[in-house]
Amino acid sequence: MSWANLSLKKNILSGYVSQLYVTGVGIMILPLYIKYMGAEAYGLVGFFTMLQAWFGLLDMGLTPTIGRETARYRGGNITALAYRQLYRALSLIFLVVALIGGISLFLVADLIVEQWLQVESLDMGKVVVCVQIMGIIVALRWLCGLCRGVIAGSERLVWLSGFNGLIATMRFIAVFGSMWQFGFTPLVFFVHQLVIALTELVGLWWMGNRLLPSKADSKETIGWSLKPIKPVLRFALTIAFTSSIWVLVTQTDKLILSGILSLAEYGYFTLAVLVASGIMVISGPVSSAIMPRMARLHSEGKHDEMIQVYRNASQLVTVICGSAAITVAFTAEKLLFAWTGDGQLAQESAPILRLYAIGNGFLALAAFPYYLQYALGNLRYHLIGNLVTICLLIPSIIYAAKVYGAIGAGWVWVSLNGMLLLFWVGYVHSKLEPGLHAKWLLIDIAKISLPVFFVLWGISLLGLPTGDRIVEFGVVAALSITALITAVFTSSYAKTVISLRVRNG
Fold first, then answer.
1. pLDDT below 70 — which residues of the chain?
2. Phi and psi at residue 468, in whole multiples of 5°?
3. Is the pTM of this model over 0.85?
4. Sequence-ordered list of residues with C-beta below 8 angstroms from that of 125, at least 6 positions apart, any chain
5. Which residues 6+ apart lie within 8 Å of 499 measured at CB?
6. How many CA atoms within 13 Å lie on the side-chain side of 231?
7. Angle of helix 469-489 versus helix 323-340 axis, rounded to 10
8. What angle do the packed helices 39-55 and 263-281 form, to 10 degrees?
């Protein structure tokens, strides 16, 4: 096995361990938030999560751009001087945007609380302070994007995964120490998150600067200029637009419902959607690992290797995300009850969870053409596809959410993502890599996911045991393992990896 392949597998594995831990801790701890803080206070936490996503609109394509240019620098395609000049120019933009965005959110906090959020029992003055702190936190966490781009582009994902796990522990678990000492209130929660955001920024900045080429590597002065951005401006703006549309696609329903539902009801909705978001989160390590690798392979003229990485990663995501989405769809109510112990919450939230899990499973696979276009440095088709998607999604979500609430938004989500996977992905493949789509759809996706669906469907027809939380958890765990095993043994890539592991001991 070559060093490059070994490195890629280590990056993917470390990314998965980190993401599983970060996601698992974040999800498993939620019932404790609701228990000790209350559903309405947790609704405020859900609003904070949504706010961070919307702040991503200000990214302007800068994070993926520095990641791609870092990979190109490591591949010898740009000089150390040009790379450092670009990094400095992007640093200036990151800082300015963070200041403008953070200050703006801080100043309109009272308007958000009084005119948008449906606060019932929480102290309005303290909620305003919490929203002001949110503005500072999201600005700090957005600044982390520049350093993350450098670290990911350098393929130092093992370190990044460990650091993310540490920050998640401090954010999700250590916060209970702060609240135990000072009170289980939203204000204490957000002050703690502010301290952790500062810690995260310092840690990422330290590692990012270590990975930058030394100033001594070039005899010329780096200088202070925005001119280095011009060569990558088109790519960055395309990324910015598509990233903005991604935020609109994934967060419009949450924004609309945050102004329609009470904070307590929004808390329950957020809980269900967060569980479903795990489907997308566990696909993240694959995209983080393959995007710089595919960009490098393309720059080196290794087209066939690049496509093989693409197809292998597609199978891996189908095995993990596909089996997870199907399992959640079949066990939504059992999963929520085993997790929270609240039968009514489980019954009311299960339909929302089921729809969002399926929709996220579709979306995790439909995102793959973007990775291919990213590597090629041309996001034209991704741009067009997102424009069409957003034109369909926004009016549909607004109507469905206002008329049917969370369930209506869920049906729009699953329907649109299903059509995206079936129709648009095929069109993009036909333009970029003729002859790939049929093999990709049938061998890399359908051959793996359909057996999982039919196996779980057959088991569900026999009747699933019901009982207390332990019994329900056992059922969910058994079906999850069954789905994963089925997916692994129907994936040619997964079987090859396992065979190599067995042979090598």
1. 1-16, 19-20, 23, 56-61, 215-243, 246, 499-505
2. -80, -175
3. no
4. none
5. none
6. 10
7. 170
8. 50
